[in-house]
Task: inverse folding
């Protein structure tokens, strides 16, 4: 049985109940998410061959500090960086280091800023220089998958409708959907209920209700969906070393659909690719 609770009266931990947020909370999420989006916009100008991912991490940390925000990943469950940088066959949670980006790489940069206690969570793919058509196509399919998942969000639908929309499209494009990771509730907590699967059936999962806030963040592979986590305990890679991509938005369920909190103010939701026309 799924329990829903008014967020203002919920305990400060994930109890499995789904929080329903009010208008004031939505405004807090707008502030946090738009700061994250502005940081991701700014990164579009600096991601190029030769840049080391530790420099991306420092940029994100400094951007947050300059704007009164704290990177949520820093010291989260032992993680020591301010962002995740996942390159090529890394599915998610890639740890920044001193390795430079190379011409033709694709890299996901995942940023979550905490602003006045609210978590703004988003990620984007960045082509590094000129990429091969197969990589470019993967980015296009992954972003379209995200937007189709978002289009399924409305009160009365179920979370499975999001997964079905993503899976149906991605697999029709001869790509696969990673099943080991999912979207999640977010707000005052970094990770909260419900889990948002990126595959499934429309009649499955909790009912979507006005006031819910969560991320949708499909990870799409050119090859098979299987992944493994490396010895560092964080970095997840494709088992067949095929390319993987991910885009992520934070959304809030409204009376007639949803609000995307993390939209790029500069129209750079797909940096390096033409603007999306949905």
Result:
């Amino acid at each position: 049985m799924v329990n829903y609770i008014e967020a203002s009266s919920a305990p400060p931990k994930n109890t499995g109940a789904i929080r329903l947020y009010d208008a004031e909370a939505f405004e807090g999420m707008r502030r946090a998410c738009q700061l994250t989006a502005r940081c991701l916009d700014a990164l579009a100008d600096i991601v190029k061959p030769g840049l080391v991912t530790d420099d991306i991490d420092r940029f994100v940390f400094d951007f947050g500090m300059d704007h009164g925000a704290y990177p949520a990943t820093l010291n989260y469950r032992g993680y020591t960086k301010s962002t995740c940088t996942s390159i090529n066959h890394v599915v998610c949670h890639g740890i920044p280091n001193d390795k430079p980006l190379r011409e033709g790489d694709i890299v996901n940069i995942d940023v979550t800023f905490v602003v006045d206690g609210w978590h703004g969570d988003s990620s984007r793919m960045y082509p590094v220089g000129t990429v091969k058509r197969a990589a470019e196509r993967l980015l296009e399919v992954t972003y379209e998958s995200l937007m189709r998942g978002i289009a399924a969000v409305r009160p009365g639908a179920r979370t499975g409708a999001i997964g079905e929309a993503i899976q149906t499209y991605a697999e029709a494009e001869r790509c696969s959907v990673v099943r080991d990771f999912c979207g999640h509730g977010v707000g005052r907590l970094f990770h909260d209920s419900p889990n948002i699967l990126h595959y499934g059936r429309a009649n499955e999962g909790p009912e979507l209700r006005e006031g819910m806030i969560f991320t949708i963040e499909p990870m799409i592979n050119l090859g098979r969906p299987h992944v493994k986590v490396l010895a560092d305990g964080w970095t997840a890679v494709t088992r067949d070393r095929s390319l993987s991509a991910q885009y992520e938005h934070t959304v809030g369920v409204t009376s007639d659909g949803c609000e995307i909190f993390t939209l790029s103010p500069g129209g750079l939701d797909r940096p390096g690719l033409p603007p999306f026309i949905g």
